[in-house]
Amino acid sequence: LLAYFFYSVVLSENIGRLGSVVGIAQQAHVSLKRMGISEHDLNTFEEKGIPCADLNNIESFRIDDPALTEVIHLNKGQAIIIFGEIGSGKSELIYRLMGYTNSAETKLFWNNVELSIAQRRFLTGKSICLVTNEPAAVTCSLLENITFGIDLSLEEVLKLLHIVDLDKDIANFPDGLHTIIGPRTFRLSGGQLQRVALARALARKPDILILDNSLSGLDEKTMKIVWSRLRAEFKGVIIMCANFKSACVPPDYYVDIKTPKQALLN
Q1: Strand extents, DSSP E, the chain
Q2: CA atoms of 188 and 212, how far apart (whole Å)
Q3: Residue 50 in contact with residue 236, Cβ under 8 Å?
């Protein structure tokens, strides 16, 4: 009798696992179908670098209450600051540009070629990098947090640290570039962590760099230094979101989102 119950338990476990295998197989089938669609779309998507990008018919997730109704045109080498009150649509604009929404009404053109919904997902990473106002640090060395798998020379890393004005701070770190940082080790200040995240994004050499309040932890003097060096060294498009006009050197454009339904390009 004991052996019967033992084998019953073993058999029931295997039957349960068989159900899990069937579920995983179904998920894999759906994933393969999606990958097939994406692969077809990628055949027509050439990532040549960005002379320009356009967003048309920008709308919010709420169909009855569009957040933005203007057209944004971005040219290579330009810097744009988007500012407005909380909830005015700054993050919505970023999500549209990065392809995080599947709205068929919003049209995204890359190098004058309209991208499908599937193609937009492949912009994020190399083409577009987002730096948030609360970035995270992986528990490893400062150098590894910046390179993150990218093969960079020491000279290139030091140049990135100079752009984000962290080169002087490193002199006070216990082991310099090899200092282990993270929540339970050597803790960076909010401003230092934001600049590490900015250096990490610059290491990927994106075409579009998006700063979502990611200089908010800096004092006015440091912000001006970082902004001026960023404008001098970064050759792509810079988009910075802020709740008010910052102390940064005036950009090429201000996008003033005064109300949830109005975006004025100045």
Answers
A1: 52-56, 72-75, 79-84, 107-110, 113-114, 128-131, 140-141, 180-181, 208-212, 237-242, 253-259, 262-265
A2: 19
A3: yes
Hey, what amino acid is at 100? Y
Q: Quote the tokens at residue 195.
A: 């600049």
SS3 161: helix
Nearest CA-CA partner of 108 in 88, 80, 82, 128: 128
Neighbouring CB atoms inside 10 A of 160's CB total 22
How would you write the pLDDT of the chain (266 residues) with one tens digit per residue?
Answer: 667 666 777 677 767 677 777 777 777 766 655 544 444 444 444 545 554 555 544 443 333 444 444 556 667 788 888 877 776 677 777 777 776 666 666 667 766 777 776 666 666 656 788 898 888 888 899 999 999 888 999 999 999 999 999 999 998 899 999 999 987 778 888 899 999 999 999 999 988 898 988 888 888 889 889 999 998 999 888 888 877 666 566 777 777 776 444 444 43
43 Cα distance to chain centroid: 24
Query: What is the Cα Rg of the chain in Å?
Result: 23
What's the predicted TM-score (pTM) here? 0.69
60-70 CB burial, b ≥16 within 10 A, e <16: beeeeebbbeb
